Amino acid sequence: MSALFLKASLIMSFVKKNILWFIFALLLFASMVLYFVVANRYILATESIAFFDQSAGIEKVYSAIKWPDNQNNKIRVIYFWQAYCPCDATVMPHFKELYKEHANDTIDFYLSDLSLIGLPPVALSSINLSTTASSTKYDRPFDHILNEGLTDRFRPFVSHTPAVAIWNENNELTYYGPHSLGYVCNTESSFVKKVIDSLLQNIHSKNTNIVGDGCFCKV
Predict the structure, then answer these.
(1) Start-to-end CA span in the chain (Å)
(2) In this predicted model, what pLDDT tens digit does every residue of 84-140 receive, in sequence order?
(3) DSSP readout, 66-110?
(4) How many CB atoms lie within 10 A of CB 10?
(5) What's the maximum distance between 2 C-alpha atoms anywhere in the chain?
(6) How many CB atoms lie within 10 A of CB 64?
């Protein structure tokens, strides 16, 4: 009995002397577990090649939207993005510049956040546009946020982000694809800027089914 008591005393003495090391090791292990859980759930893996070949589906969803009367006869730009995609983070500053540049043009910029948890699907024929305007002009590079139900309708046809769809004032899809090719998005490399500039000059063309080469996150 005395031998057992002695062993227990030695163990307690060892624990007391090294308690800080035990706490440090425990915190280190917990932080590593937390990092891998968060990284796996919230930091999306990137890919260098993306296919934007679902323009027919994008057009079908768009054609079912009932646009408010005061939003007709406008160029519409929908930016599909994911909050935890590092590629989207690099594109957002350029999108903000683009938004400021065209603040006085007949263009509406929309954000479709594919990182939101989807709502139960609704019948395609009953889709109504419900948007929320930005709280302060220029604090975000878009005029409206698409509601979750409508975003979920687009979701099956958006394989990667960053992705952009652009419609002309006649509600014709003129572009669906990446912001740009390559890993840098700027004025020179931006497809979106070129398409918008062309539409403002009444130059109409259709650019869809594009293979992207750059930085993308799978949806």
Answers:
(1) 64
(2) 888 888 888 888 888 888 888 889 899 898 985 443 443 333 334 444 333 334 456
(3) ---GGG-S-EEEEEEE-TT-HHHHHHHHHHHHHHHHTTTSSEEEE
(4) 10
(5) 96
(6) 15
